[in-house]
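Ticket #4471: structure output looks truncated?

Reporter: J.K.
Steps to reproduce: submitted the chain below (346 residues) through the standard prediction queue, then opened the result file.
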Amino acid sequence: MDFSIVSILTLDGFTNGAVYALLGLATVLVFTVTRVIFIPQGEFVAYGALTLAMLQAGKVPGTVWLLMILAGVASLMECWSRWHHDHNVVNGIKAGVRMFIPPMLIALLTWWSATQNFSMLVQALLSVAVVATFGPLVYRIAYQSLESAPPLVLLIVSVGVHFAMTGLGLLFFGAEGFRNPSFLNESWTLGPLNITGQVFIIFLTALVMILVLWVFFERTLFGKALRATAVNRTGARLMGISTHAAGQFTFLLAAGIGAISGLLIGPTTTVFYDSGFLIGLKGFVAAVVAGLASYPGALVGALFVGVVESFGSFWASAFKEVIVFTLILPVLLWRSISSGHSDEEH
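Returned output as attached by the reporter:
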């Protein structure tokens, strides 16, 4: 193995690691606010890439129909919950309508634009909007009524949501895979490396999003209020922080990050309805390396995972997944020894 091969493998590892960093970022984001280990994060990746592919083909994406179905279910649940709490039919109907209208407007706009042959940038923005809107709906349907449950219960729910979203992906997209065109076709040569425009966009997007979210949660009052809901939900409610709104907003961000990751990875590989699972798990490994708490740590962990995967593919391609997921074992052991007891039950 010479310097050229090492350079190429390292660049490939950093490119994949940047995408894993976005998913690790979303995993850390959801966990630090809601204490949910969100297994289905990878499904948003597949949904984002496939939605853009369908728009590129001039077809109405299956996510439009799924979005309308979930919006209807979530609005009915919100209506019933508000009526049961306030015993006021008008308040219940208003709550249901507020939950239903934004997803419906986005679904109708995407349905109309599917045959309008808009530019790729507009189609990408619509794809992100559609998939991001899934976040609050998924939280409302699957998690909101269980937000005070132990983390193990939430983890089990996450597994169920993963299987449901995978099956729905097969139903609404089919088994055929798609590969999207690159957002930037330019390329630059640096020694033995050929750096494409897509690689540049991946790195830039990952760095900007990690920096923005780190500043948001560490330096802004609203970000600290969201984090407070994870530390002490009762105290957050007493301070006027809505835990329901915090959870829905967090899932909105996580779904948007997943959709953007799908758009970034779409031009580099063929995406199927179930492709997001392994990609999401690698992002989860990066988040675990960061202790499910640090955004810069998620970036470092994701780049490490990407490099290990790249070199593992070169030396033993049949075992690259085993090598990557084995990384989590010593990390978990070290964190178990160093962190002491958990105060999750207090």
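Triage note (M.O.): checked the attachment and the full token line is present. The first strand starts at residue 187 and ends at 190.
Status: closed, working as intended.
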